[in-house]
Amino acid sequence: MSEEIKTIKVTIDNITIDVAPGTTILNAARQIGGDVTPPAMCYYSKLEGSGGKCRTCLVEVAAGSTADPRPMPKLVASCRTGVMDGMIVKNITSEKVTDARNGVVEFLLLNHPLDCPICDQAGECHLQDLGYDHGKEGTRYQFARRTFKKEDLGPYIQLHMTRCILCYRCTYVADQITNKRVHGVLDRGDHAAISTYISKAIDNDFSGNMIDVCPVGALTDKTFRFKNRVWFTKPVDAHRDCQTPGCCGKATLWLRGDEVFRVTARKDEWGEVQSFDGKPGWICNTCRFETKKTSEWTIEGLTTISRHSVIGANKYKTLEMPKETVKEVMNGVEPRLLMDIHSISGVNDPSVHLSEIDRPAKKDDFKK
Amino acid sequence: MQRMSKKLLLKNANVPGIRQYDVYRREGGYVGVEKALKMQPEAIVEEVKKSGLRGRGGAGFPTGMKWSFLAKPEGVPRYLVCNADESEPGTFKDRYLMEFIPHLLIEGMIIASYALGSNNSYIYIRGEYDWVADILQEAIAEAKQNGWLGKNIQGSGFDCEMYVQRGAGAYICGEETALLESLEGKRGNPRIKPPFPAIKGLWGCPTVVNNVETIAAVVPIINEGGEAYAQIGVGKSTGTKLISACGNINKPGVYEIDMTISVEEFIYSDEYCGGIPNGKRLKACIPGGSSVPILPANLLLTTAKGEKRMMNYESLSDGGFASGSMMGSGGFIVLDEDQCIVRHTYTLARFYRHESCGQCSPCREGTGWMEKILLNIEKGKGKISDIDLLWDIQRKIEGNTICPLGDAAAWPVAAAIRHFRDEFEWHVNNPDKCLTENYGLRHYADAIHVPA
């Protein structure tokens, strides 16, 4: 007897989908994909407890469920709200959501230094993408932005707190993936900061994954800092037989020629670490920071990059001109010129070459 | 003739030595526990429902309803947590209650613990109330000595231990889920709801979080019966409410009202605030703690419909946010004609910026932004467009945050601009004058024409 899997129906921006009970609105939207998926800056499906903080994924619930079709009074964080059978959600079809999301993006950019030109995250920064989608060209903020001193979190990780949007993802990584968390959030409000309190080095086999989950350039790879722009490097999928327990050994190498500039975990279409056999594909620090020769890896092939991403620009396929099909469909007959407008035009005399006149042309020039 | 309103909580507040167990017991203390332990827990919840008691912490949610939402899965402990993290500027009623009649809170805690089946109950008190925490601890020890806490209380078979936990000085820990996080020993960040504490609260177990005054009010409800309690007051504002009055009044202090008096009477009668000192005139008032909307004198005393505004939940919120305010926590702040609304709003904005936990973006970034703009306007460096900008910022914070602190930060700014926009504009247009002079009362006390 086959077990019947119960699904529930949810409608997001007029698209209905069946999902498993317990799915969040955001994950249901990701199953639909495309524009109806709310952006997420703090939610990370592989990190338990993440989400709800950045408020970019706010959506309007126009009807709670079939049983209770009342709308929810406030916009809800789609990453932390479970779907109900018959729920109707409005994302990009709701003016309230667009307005609130624009507001959230403005808040996130308020104290962000916008130093993209010198930031290693540029090109793969979620805040940059969010800014392009929802931001305004000008700022209404006319005060000094809050700044922090740069901090070294051990030999591999650079913390640039000024760029941080306090998504808390890195603290979840430390809690859930490494064996001991030595960093966290200090202070509160707009002066809250990620730190190790006494600048203690983060020394752990899996600490490098914090860099991968960071949506902005707050945590960067010190072995890659200022070495290259991501869009000049070529990502390839590669694997190696890694002996570190818990490391999946599957990574993306960022190459220039034969030189490995950077090693990261493999990312999925939502910018999260890919899962392999149902487990998130975190990689250890040895793979990430110490294994930087192509000979140490088995290269599988080019990484698939979204064609909207700056990283993939002009790298894999050049534009091909569509070929002329007239002759083909006309059984080999060339298209016939019906009228050569130049030869019968009474305005411009074809025998007068404009390039031979050393001044602007006048009407007299065309008079015989 | 002056009519004394009924006192339930502060009835014995002036009895010498009421802080001690012996005196409290002599004056009829712990009779409520004796009565309650003979009742079924469900019957107590029913009495509280009948009483119509509404949460006294600010939101005014019906307490009996909150109690009946508590999940009761087999084999999982349940907790009662008393929210004594009274940090709202202008609110100090709980401190008074705990400092002078600590046993009233403990008696209420025992009854509520019994009704909810909580064998370990906590009082989370703000760190600044250091001496009050000591008083509570002494009172708990006394209660335990006399058999009101511990194992098998008064032979009823009910066990209850009570603990006092001090906060570390964060306003945000008065938000119930942040309070629970802090109580668990974590950073006091509000949790994302759902799940609500009634399902998953302290250490993942079903929990009820109630304000000090709410729990104290359970004692008279059990003593006199829920129906008798509901007789006091008016409409859905039943029982008595403690108001902590401060600001430009002759007699600041904590008053117990039965919600049938008018705001005007409360401010000007000698029984309560005793009027405004130095013959000044009333300009504005925040009737329920710093986060509720401020009202100009005319809308404070009379609703937009032209009715007399009363000191109760319904009347204070009459007109919604357009022309009304909220009962809130009962922090009644009176501003006379010499007060500057811009400066006042800036002070509040600074407070909320400082107290924002920084977890969610709109509140973290928006509160700081509002503070900076308000400081500019206050210092005569503002622009007219700043006023609209402020409005837009508060609009984008309100309702979009994890916890109500975002709303609490947005409402005072919104209300100040809504009712006192011309004062803000005067500050912008008179950049030098505003540093030395005050806008004054102007038309804020003028009667508003009510179309018949």
What does this entry look like structurally?
The complex is a heterodimer of chains A (about 375) and B (about 450). Chain A is of the alpha+beta class and about 375 residues long. Chain A folds into 3 domains: about 10-95, Ubiquitin-like (UB roll) (Roll); about 110-135 and about 145-225, Alpha-Beta Plaits (2-Layer Sandwich); about 230-320, no CATH class. Chain A has helices at about 25-30, 95-110, 125-135, 170-175, 210-215, 285-290, 325-330, 340-345, and strands spanning about 10, 15-20, 60-65, 75, 85-90, 150-155, 155-160, 185, 195, 220, 235-240, 250-255, 260-265, 275, 280, 300. In chain A, helix 2 (about 95-110) crosses helix 3. Chain A is globular and about 90 Å long. Chain B has about 450 residues and is of the alpha/beta class. The mean pLDDT of chain B is about 95.
Q: Return Rg of chain A in Å.
A: 27 Å
Described by the principal axes of the CA atoms, the overall outline of chain A is globular
CATH class of the largest domain in chain A: Alpha Beta
- CATH-level-2 architecture of the largest domain in chain B: 3-Layer(aba) Sandwich
What fraction, in percent, of the residue positions of chain A are helical? Answer: 10-25%
Number of helices of chain B: 19
What is the name of the CATH architecture of the largest domain in chain A? 2-Layer Sandwich
Order of helices and strands of chain B: HHHHEHHEHEHEHHEEEEHEEHHHEHHHHH
User: What is the CATH class name of the largest domain in chain B?
Assistant: Alpha Beta
CATH H-level superfamily title of the largest domain in chain B: NADH-ubiquinone oxidoreductase 51kDa subunit
Percent helix of chain B: 40-55%
Written as H for each helix and E for each strand, in order along the chain, the element string of chain A is EEHEEEHHEEHEEHEEEEEEHEHH
The secondary structure category of chain A is alpha+beta
- Number of alpha- plus pi-helical segments of chain A: 8
Q: If you average the pLDDT of chain B, what whole number results?
A: 95
